[in-house]
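Folding Query — how this chain folds
Tokens — whole-number codes for backbone shape
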Amino acid sequence: MDHGDGKTLATGSRLTDGIAARWFQALYETPLLLSGILDARGTVLDANRQSIEGCGLVRERILGRPFWEGGWWSPDPELSAQVRCWCEQTVRTGVPLRTVSRYHLADGTRRMVDLAIFPVTDDAGAVAYLAATGSDITDALVTQRARDERAAVQTEALHRVAETREREFRRVQEAERRAEARLHQLVTVALALLSAESVEDLTSIVVDRSMPVLGADGGAVVVRESDGGLRVVVSGRFGERTRAAYRSLPPDSPLPACHTARTGDPVLLPTRAAGLAFTPGMADVYAATRRDAWAFLPLRVGARLLGSLAVSWREEREFSSDELTMLEAFAAQCAQALDRIQHLSAQRESALAAQRLSETLQRSLLTQPPTPDSLDIAVRYQPAAHEAQVGGDWYDAFVTSTGATMLVVGDVTGHDQIAVAAMGQIRNVLRGLAYDSDGGPAALLGRLDRALRGLRVGALASAVLARVEPAVTVDGRDVRRLCWSNAGHPPPLLRRPDGTVEVLTSRGLMLGVQPGVGRTEQVLDVPEGSTLLLYTDGLVERRDITLDEGIDRLAGLFGAVGAGHPEQVCDAVLAAVPVDHEDDIALLVVRCCP
């Protein structure tokens, strides 16, 4: 970059002394800023033209004299003393000071300045100079004052307008309050309907709680049943005998509630005469309910007719248009709530049937364990507390063709019938691979992983596979060789005869993640009297603790109860599980008997 003086300044380099001096001089002499330099005693060493000549002052009377004695402040002794205090404070504290102050021009005109006094320190950190700068803000303050005055005038005008509107509002306030009360009651009923889970709830909310809106005295909800019959839920404002008498009506009943539920036509009976003219059967209704005026409205959602809403009054009446509008609104809310209740009921029944089917299928696959010589085996399966939650947890125990006992506990990801089906496939494939094989658990899990990929069983599962060999005598005592491999599953627990519990940790990928990956296995000699516990994560996972904490708790419990028979151990372990546990639990306990 060429600056015209024959010198070139590269981009990013520092300014030359000459340029820096000119730049400082231009900033210092700007007409937008009053600027001066003082020594530590407050003596004015220099000031720009705007601050002296621009204020009509004489430079010779400013330079070399204390800052507070300059013509800006000296016409007002109190102001001059204040400026002196500001300078001394800045020197003493070393903290910059900024304030708004009045000042004077040479002709005595008073102005306002945004004043700042900055300390400048030497190499030792002591304040050596003061830099005083100021911006004249008189015009801005005047403008702001004018704006404030205009705003005050506008505010007063608005206040008068508001008072006028308030008087107008008061003339209609009472009518609006009544309408608001009705609307509030309607909203309250609509919100309450969200909690209704049965037709009885719906009747209590819509009929009993909404009656004050219309001044009505009772009613009923008539529901069309899937078998063609009509179910009547009568308001609690009527006696039990009345509710029992009209609990169920034939679809061809001539009563107006049934007529509306059957045809979708509303019926208004403002008098007894109108009701008896509609059907003589209304005589019994009048006698049982002691209500002389009735309104029957259809409960309809789209093209579906769900039933009817009946509302009654003690005395005969004429229905106004507002009342009919409100009745129609109640009927629409009731219909929406009834439709939701029926859908939820159907969904619950469907989910319960699916859950029962899945659980039956799962239990049919979880067969009783074998009873090999000198091994006591007990198993348990406990579904999740939530009815719709059926998972792919499984256990299995069987004796191979070589006499070894294979133990497995696993968990297929998911909580649905697909997970149950995948569990059955994985369990059966593993049985087929392991029965006539003398391979170790790691090799079998590897073969199982490859087989699942080849058979296109698209599921992820965790599992622990253990092989228990028949007992042999070593150094005069019977021991069994235990070999196990883990595929991403919680570790088994081994309780020795002395009550100590060992967590059989091992690591490996879940089945279905990376078929063909190398797997490891561990081998341990287990003395007679030991108990082995295999389980799924539903036994140890809780929202309020980590998985490791859950395993530690289980190990402590197992150490206390593990000396009993495996059946007793299973019962004791499951007894400690919260009633509302969120996952299935599969449990397998094996005890090596002498």
Observations:
- The radius of gyration is 46 Å.
- DSSP finds 14 helices and 22 strands in the chain.
